[in-house]
Amino acid sequence: MSNVVGMALAIAFWIATSVVVGFLGARLSLTALLSIARHSWWLGGPRARWYRKRLFIDAWKHRLPEAGSFGGGVSKRSIASRQHTTLARLYLETVRAELVHTGLLVIQWLPALWLSPGFVVVPVLYAVLANVPFLAVQRYNRVRLSRIIDIYDPWCFDE
Asked: Model's pTM, two decimal places?
């Protein structure tokens, strides 16, 4: 397979996986997201200060595209209201986005299997660069929101 055909297939693969994984992520129920969000392994991680000091996240996060409303999801670009249930829903949307980008990070390097050795690094770099910044932003937002809401409070969520 020529490098041009291989890269064309890789690009088609990246577009297809982004659409499919994003669509499947949008179909996850709030109940499923809540059960994932309540696992102790999900609740760990650095504090918001770490993201600000180490990644300078406030300087660049607003430049990332937002596709949260794709496939029936909810945009995370701005907060519609400061009501507790709205913030709780936004928290769950950060969980959804983090799941989608983790899934994409896991599979979007696969074109490395069919590309020639000189191009193997391209899909790996793409998978990292196209997903890790979004993961960082979602974790940062989730950490900030977790200080406001209590995910164990059953009255907090409109299910």
From this structure: 0.82
